[in-house]
User: Fold these one by one.
Assistant:
Number 1:
Amino acid sequence: MCHRMDDVMKLCCELSAHQQIQTTVKGSGKGAAAAGSLAFAGGLVGGPLGIAVGGAVGGLLGCWLTSGQFKPLPQVIMELTPRQQQKLYDDLVAILGDVQWTDIAQLTALVMSNSSLKHQLTAALLGYVTKELQAEVQYVD
């Protein structure tokens, strides 16, 4: 992997770890399907009250089905294929523009000290995760 690409991937990990971002790719659809299905079934059986009960039970079931499937975003980034990393790198380098750095420590310091640049890179990273990976993003409290 190219030194600069490696630095940008590590920067992505630092940005997402700093904000404690987690993602799930496949589990969110399963949870939503469970909640929606049980709300629908509850509505058929019990009318408006059945929708409420079915939705609540479905939500709990969906939570249980997807528990443990959220991964920290740095882990997801490091598991990207080379093609996916290249796409993310290209997106972020377009934002970095002519920023010059010698190592990851300098790049991280430059980005973290510039709130506008940090915000733009974080937004691009989250946009990539939601559009390209079709993942759901969650912030850990």
Number 2:
Amino acid sequence: MNIQSVNSNQAETNSLISEAGSERTQYPYVTGTSVIGIKYKDGILMAADMGGSYGSTLRYKGVERVKPVGKHSLLGASGEISDFQEILRYLDELILHDNMWDDGNSLGPKEVHSYLTRVMYNRRNKFDPLWNSLILGGVKKGHKYLGLVNMIGVHFEDNHVATGFGNHLARPILRDEWHENLSFEDGVKLLEKCMRVLLYRDRSAVNKFQIAKITEEGATTYPPYALKTFWNFSAFQNPTVGAEGSW
């Protein structure tokens, strides 16, 4: 075997390795459903269930999808769980690098949200998106901040935000009942009302929820719990009544 043949074989091998290394995940595998965030009188409240769906199978029922970030922020995610874990690694590095300056300042929720918008848009431009919709809320120096960014980098700030099915089913409730002087107790009741509707209507939701809050004093994540439900609505018992041609 001559040298030219060896070099040719090596080039083909390197080409195959390069092609294998550039593969893209184009579909999420283990996913979480809706997250809801609202501003209330003292800070930010966030709620999400703890289900992780493998396709249409509710495979995991203990997945935490709301996490504190640094001193001032709270992050909630729907979508691919492994991509959410990767985002948390990015944020750990960001917060560590910020702390290394030791200048008495720390990143607030607005800065963290801005960073996430750049990360999501950058990955989208590489055709290798992080398959998540993220809610970032927090409080710094008395200013409450709540924003959302999706998997292609579209982002906005609002008084209440939701991802997934929550954007269609919970936001109308929030538009009707949210106000800026919500107490913590009223805020929790409003979130529970939204999550109950999602539990009834979203096949990927599970009746195991987690609520977290962040104020000037810091973040608090409460133990998971289940909501009381009622399944004897006539529409649930006979959903096809009056529907001609249905099964």
Number 3:
Amino acid sequence: FTFDYVYPPATQQKDVYDSCVMPLVNTFFEGYNATILAYGQTGSGKTYTMGTGSEHSSTAQDDDGIVPRFIRTLFRQLETKYPGQRSNYQVAVSFLELYNEDLVDLLAPSTANASISSNAAKKEIVIREDAQGQIRWHGVSEVPVDSPAHLFDYLQQGSNARTTASTDMNHSSSRSHAIFSVILKQTVSKEATDTDPVAEPLTPVDQVAPVDKTSTTTNTIVSKFHFVDLAGSERLKRTNAQGDRAKEGIAINSGLLALGNVISALGDDSKRRVAAHVPYRDSKLTRLLQDSLGGNSQTLMVACVSPAEANVNETLSTLKYANRARNIR
């Protein structure tokens, strides 16, 4: 297998962030969309790597995952880029959960006090494609934030509302796919100078003198950073899931299968040449990630694997999955 980065089990979270995430953060400030996907079998450390499942503090910790480190980097770089100019940028956040093919807004006011199964927690969220071919999520809360502490509060709120349950392979297994998104709007002013020849009647020689005209144009740059914590692929005979847990596992595997089919279609050179059909509509998960996989987004897939010999089949499957994703161009 050929990958861009390989990390042994003893690698620190900071090393992972600095080497593979910071390049995406830098392009995010330039106006490019970015996505990080965490994929792997259940219990392999996806939520830990992303940093969306633990108690969050505004003070840095050694075991902080990708998202908490990104939050601190975001506001630190904004203050450096726009010193004392808070009006030049706006930051907003959204947090979605895909549970049993139902989209749940984890930042909606009703979600904090309602269970996922109740109608009060469900909000009508529609995925549409606009005239430019970009995917839009209608009905999703985009909450403005103005500080790292504020953003950490919403990350914690969404993480607490996310559906988790115990299986034989993981005490707190994620039972849904989660997408944590940060939206950055930057207002950039640019001075344009036009030099036009203007007649000067009072000059001793009848000549034309240039006069400078300076105008200021304002552009708004919008970029989005999606952090996707995919639920772990499961084998029911190993998790011993029954009832609702079994239904959740089937829905999780169905979404991951659809994602694998999309990745295979995008990474196959022969299909790319003939503009073959890409099955984005087979699942809400692939529809949500359409821009990230085949659009203008810079995307990183973090494949988490278990070092245990008992999990060798799932580890090999994960590596093959990630290898196909790397072939996407």
Number 4:
Amino acid sequence: MDAFSAFFESHSASRNSWSYDSLKNFRQISPIVQTHLKQVYLSLCCALIASAVGAYLHVLWNIGGLLTTVACMGSIVWLLSTPPYEEQKRVALLMAAALFEGASIGPLIELAIEIDPSILVSAFVGCAVAFGCFSVAAMLARRREYLYLGGLLSSGLSILFWLHFASSVFGGSAALFKFELYFGLLVFVGYIVVDTQDIIEKAHFGDLDYVKHALTLFTDFAAVFVRILIIMVSYAYLHSIWKT
């Protein structure tokens, strides 16, 4: 109980001291780390573009499925096993993984376009705004402030895995699916904060592997985007049924 009270007291104190000047307070992030973060987010933007290309290729030629999912996982494993000095190869593998990921979620994107194309734009904008807000919050927070949440999020991720496994084996219900969806969204939003602080902390200690760090943030972004899109598609589908 003391830990919880201390947690809320510290956060209420930080809210009381919040001002416009605090939005510009990146002094705790050294210039080297700031340069590293620019490389990470530039690589993330390129990966998102590659993912959009992959989704577009699926819409054109229906290539998304199990093979692209396996290819995405293979590209990620290949990237992580490639030495950091092979920079161009690792960047190419990151773009390949992003392209295959985009093709893999292509069927969901195609469904959203068929129901209402504006859903896709709204889901991406909502995901981008949430990602940006939580990333900035992690940068402005005190160093290592949210890293302790990593254990809780790992536990939440394992719960999601076993729930998905149980529903696959024994059959699932609509209520269980909704719980997995919203709980998964909460977990991966938390990972945005934790991973951002983890990247900053590693960079302070000399780990400037921007390709691997961009991959980490890309997986967070993709996980949040897919869940937001599923929620919006579900509500749009139910709304269309009620109208008819």
